[in-house]
Write a structure and sequence with these properties.
Chain lengths: 113, 114
Amino acid sequence: AQSVSQHNHHVILSEAASLELGCNYSYGGTVNLFWYVQYPGQHLQLLLKYFSGDPLVKGIKGFEAEFIKSKFSFNLRKPSVQWSDTAEYFCAVIPRGNTPLVFGKGTRLSVIA
Amino acid sequence: DTGVSQDPRHKITKRGQNVTFRCDPISEHNRLYWYRQTLGQGPEFLTYFQNEAQLEKSRLLSDRFSAERPKGSFSTLEIQRTEQGDSAMYLCASSRTGGMTEAFFGQGTRLTVV
């Protein structure tokens, strides 16, 4: 079945460590790609999005993601995490046209001091 | 606040009862989506509207579930004869029409069926 896969269920990092969260999707053709974040007790918020153009996209709070079409991947990165980055991160795809978002299962990030 | 709002935030109901949730989207958004999220899972699509028209329903949306958006503004999601398996967070989101647009999410309604 077509899907969005996030490789890590739970990641634990120390402050200042670098972060990379994997996301792969199985849809062909043109896709729109997103990373959403859910801080504890808060609603889902958009971190960054890719529609076209430069495959390296920058989002809020120092996050970036790289679209690699040949690998069907859209990995999220941050050079140096902070305790406040503790949250759940969701990769999401619009598979075609105007269809609704399809989400991965999420990765819980815990940043320890 | 001009974000997506959902009511109630929490609902506890007995098995077999009917429940209804409301979502008020961002006012200029003509698309409205319902998702369900359970522990350890990402949001799963249920249904969506463009204005008042319901354009797509997921196979997850059993006959006990019905959603409406009568005037193209707020939407309601009703679950009839609730079951324990319906316990979840129900999320509403809205967006403008068009592929190159993001969806904005509400805080969700947490349903617990006892």
